[in-house]
Amino acid sequence: MIRYTVSKSDRLVLRESRFGLARDDAGFSQGPLTPPRPAHSPPTGSSPLSDALPHPMNSRVLLAPLACMLLATVAPTAAATDPLSWSNPLVSQRADPHVTLHTDGYYYFTATVPEYDRIELRRARTLGELATAEARIIWRKHPTGPMGAHIWAPELHFIDDKWYVYFTAGEAENKWAIRPYVLEGEGVNPLEARWSEKGRLKLGWDSFSLDGTTFAHRGARYFVWTQMENGAKGTNLYIARMDTPWSITGVITCLTKPEYDWERRGHWVNEGPAVLVKNGRVWMSYSASATDANYCLGLLSAPAGTDLLRADSWSKSPDPVFRSDVAANQFGPGHNGFTTTPDGKTDILVYHSRNYEKIKGDPLNNPDRATRAQIIRWRPDGTPDFGSPVADGPFKP
Fold first, then answer.
1. Cis peptide before 89 (omega within 30 of 0)
2. Annotated domain spans of the chain
3. Using an 8 Å Cβ cutoff, are 79 and 107 in contact?
4. Which phi and psi (to 5°) does residue 63 adopt?
5. Cα 120 from Cα 137, distance rounded (Å)
6. What are the Cα distances from residue 298, in Å, to 2, 99, 186, 370?
């Protein structure tokens, strides 16, 4: 177990906020705040069409086709009504997906765009509608200096009545000077919120670091991220408590480092953590190996009542729990997030993958990682079964 300490002069105890198991154009949005748009409902009473009808004695022949027209206009699609109706890929050319089901009933989606230059957000009432939802740009990279390149892996979280986006960025002059950063948004709808930069989230030491996520558990808020340790090979996962939504405090613990062959293919990688609390345990998935067909998911877990800052609280699966499937034509599944159906009864895995294996050149320059989703099943012993990546097309539970 590796432990570090970050000193903080002022500690703020955060109340536990709702954690969803859970990117207006250039610059910050300054538009007015608006409440969520209500779901469409069938028209009642008179309408322009019915008011325009001729006298009833002459209108009977129009009623049947008119009724069909009205039904066609207001009848919702399956994607708009069925929480388990969607088609994969969910969103094309979007990697590192993160989905938040908020208390307003909307799914909020963000992900890495292929140009690595901006942060987008979109929302919809169902996962299936995210495919056609408008993408709103809430922030763009800086032309010079920090936050000027490699804008990766944004995540949207709602903490203490404000919105926060955690993301990774390099410098315009040195794109591999990768570090984590935070945006803060004020407003009901994050697509129209007033966004400001909270700056870099400083860690225990200064080195290549990325893929931060946060979760609240038993009255404490935690930050989990990926970082290279000076003098060591590869990237590891670390955890610490947060004293504000943009800073950490106290002990830093290394949770996992690449030790198995499946974590070392192409590159030695543990990255992209995501957290799901269920069945008395804290489950933490992560991604391993290079971002080609070798990319896959590993899994850590800890009893929910233990000290999450103790490395010995956590156990690690010796095998990947989600990997490429040739039969389904899905390759390199990883960097996932978790969400649920609106009733909270069905857990959903959201991830990216490609539908072909061979990539020309550097995989990071390939735009075809796409967001996909499928349900998580639970075994009798309470452990998650991610299954295998499903083939493209309509999802069938």
1. yes
2. 3-32+74-390
3. no
4. -65, -45
5. 4
6. 20, 20, 35, 20
Strand-pairing partners, residue 166, are 155, 182
DSSP 8-state code for residue 165: E
Asked if the 3-32+74-390 domain carries CATH number 2.115.10.20, the reply is yes
C-beta separation of 105 from 342 below 8 A = yes
Report the catalytic residues. Answer: 96, 271
SS3 category, 306: coil
What is the identity of the amino acid at 160? D
Is 374 in contact with 390 (CB distance < 8 Å)?
Answer: yes
Quote the tokens at residue 256: 């996992």
Measured from the Cβ of residue 189, the count of other Cβ atoms closer than 10 Å reads 22
352 neighbors 61 (Cβ within 8 angstroms): no
Report the distance separating Cα 64 and Cα 53, nearest Å. Answer: 13
What length is written for the chain?
397
DSSP letters, 124-158, are ESSGGGGGGSPPEEEEE--SSSTT-EEEEEEEEEE
Of 213, 23, 47, give the one whose Cα is nearest residue 134.
23
Tokens of 374: 């499928």
Spatial contact of 208 and 225, defined as CB atoms under 8 Å apart? no
Overall pTM > 0.85: no
How many angstroms separate the CA atoms of 187 and 200, rounded? 22
- Show pLDDT as tens, one digit a residue, over the chain (397 residues): 444 444 333 322 233 333 333 333 333 332 333 333 333 333 333 333 233 333 333 333 333 444 444 344 444 566 667 899 999 999 999 999 999 999 999 999 999 999 999 999 999 999 999 999 999 999 999 999 999 999 999 999 999 999 999 999 999 999 999 999 999 999 999 999 999 999 999 999 999 999 999 999 999 999 999 999 988 999 999 999 999 999 999 999 999 999 999 999 999 999 999 999 999 999 999 999 999 999 999 999 999 999 999 999 999 999 999 999 999 999 999 999 999 999 999 999 999 999 999 999 999 999 999 999 999 999 999 999 999 999 999 998 8
Q: Which two tokens stand for residue 136?
A: 């709103």
Strands 331-340 and 347-354 turn out to be antiparallel
